[in-house]
Amino acid sequence: MTKDDIKENIMKILTERTFGLTIEDISKIVDVNRATASKYLLVLSAEGRILSRTVGKAKVHYLKTKELEMFFDG
To answer: Which domains does the chain have, with CATH numbers?
Structure first.
């Protein structure tokens, strides 16, 4: 699996599952280890393609939308 495949798989999963997913959930679905999933989530966040928020001890990741961006900011 190439780097672009992993990024696109993560984006596809977050598009389909709008309720948000943790790093562990994403790593299991994409079938990569947790560190790899974390790395790609950081890249996608830096590119402005996803949003993340902390819920308890977990970090939940979402596809970036205007609605979520307004919710997270305000």
So the answer is: 3-73 (1.10.10.10)
Quick: pLDDT tens for 59-69. 999 999 887 77
pLDDT (average), residues 33-62:
94
Rg of the Cα atoms in the chain: 12
CA distances from residue 22 to 33, 74 in whole angstroms, order as listed? 13, 22
Task: Kindly state the average pLDDT of the residues 22-46.
Answer: 96
Residue type (1 letter), 8: E
**CA-CA distances (angstroms) from residue 20 to 5, 62, 63, 66?**
20, 5, 8, 15
The tokens for 9 are 């798989």
